[in-house]
Amino acid sequence: MQTLPPLDRLSGILERFRVQAQLYHSGALCGVTTFSASEGYGYLHVLRRGELQVSHPGDRRGLGLLRFDEPTLLLYPRPLTHRFHNPPQEGSDFTCARLSFDGGAYNPLARALPALVAIPLARVPGLEMALELLFSETDQLRCGQRLLVDRIFEVVVIQLMRWLLDHPQEAGVQPGFITGLSDPRLARALVAMHDAPGENWSLERMAGCAGMSRTAFANRFREVVGQTPADYLGDWRMALAQGRLRAGQPIKLLAEELGYANPSALSRAFAAKVGMSPREWLAKAAQEADV
After folding, report:
1. What pLDDT digit, counting tens, does each position of 32-70 carry?
2. CATH of the domain at 263
3. Residue 248: which domain range?
4. 95 and 223 share a domain?
5. How far is residue 135's CA from residue 120's CA, in Å, rounded to a whole number?
6. What is the mean pLDDT of residues 162-181?
7. Cα 280 to Cα 271: distance, rounded to the nearest angstrom
8. Are 10 and 162 contacting, i.e. CB atoms less than 8 angstroms apart?
9. What is the pLDDT of residue 90?
10. Cα separation, 186 vs 247, whole angstroms
11. What pLDDT score was predicted for residue 1?
12. Domain count, the chain
């Protein structure tokens, strides 16, 4: 049996859709602490020691009241109001960061993740060294601390994403590109499309990247990812188009980069997927950002 070469399933995504972290809190939390969705941030919390109760007021996803009594990492990839409840005499020890996903609500990585990922620290291999450095930096003030801690938090995010790619069911990830990247054969087709979205991706070519027949590939893709390969490619191209438009790239250049014959073809595909023209969407996105 042929051994397939190693595959980097994550870099292509994070290079196009960055995740930025900013230290928010370090130390004990006492009483009730609210992290409001109105601020527009995701959050990464590291429960270093102690106990924690988390409530989610107004949430309709059924998260309810959760309790943690072991060192745990809690990731909120999208804005979601949550409250930490800690007895004043037993204030749990936390290190927290606010997260900004490029593209906000349109970031495909943030959209693919559950509202909350809660993982015991011991479950994520390799996390110990990054957390040891993180805790040593947050325990005392030193020159460059804030910038260094922000970068370490981003390393922790990447390590968590690595783990999620290999354990999507355990984290409650729904069918999508994360579950697709967890499949060794589908991942090769997905990474190829991620890296070269503008090329002519026929079903036969996608299947060839995965080392599968067209029928087997199409059936497996729909089962694992939850949509057809063509629909996935279209969604990926639109996610890239939205990011590029927000960065000020003209649609004429985008059309060529994303594999469309001309700007009109891209505009039609964009409107079909998003429900409005690129110009209308960009104006709406700018208005939402201002709010």
Report:
1. 889 999 888 999 999 988 888 999 998 777 788 899 989
2. 1.10.10.60
3. 177-290
4. no
5. 17
6. 91
7. 9
8. yes
9. 62
10. 30
11. 42
12. 2
Q: How is 216-278 classified by DSSP, letter by letter?
A: HHHHHHHHHHSS-HHHHHHHHHHHHHHHHHHTT--HHHHHHHTT-SSHHHHHHHHHHHHSS-H
Q: Which two tokens stand for residue 160?
A: 């968590």
CATH at 72: 2.60.120
Average pLDDT, whole number, for the chain? Answer: 89
203 and 80 in a single domain? The answer is: no
Give the CA distances from residue 79 to residues 40, 43, 103, in Å, rounded to whole numbers and listed in that order.
5, 8, 13
Q: What is the pTM of this model?
A: 0.87
Selected residue with higher pLDDT from 104 and 220: 220
**72: its two tokens:** 């745990």
**Partners of residue 20 on adjacent β-strands:** 100
101's tokens: 């996903």
Model confidence over 27-40: pLDDT tens digits?
777 778 899 998 88
Instruction: Provide the token pair at 203.
Output: 């079903």
Q: What distance in Å separates the CA atoms of residue 153 and residue 96, rounded to the nearest whole number?
A: 9
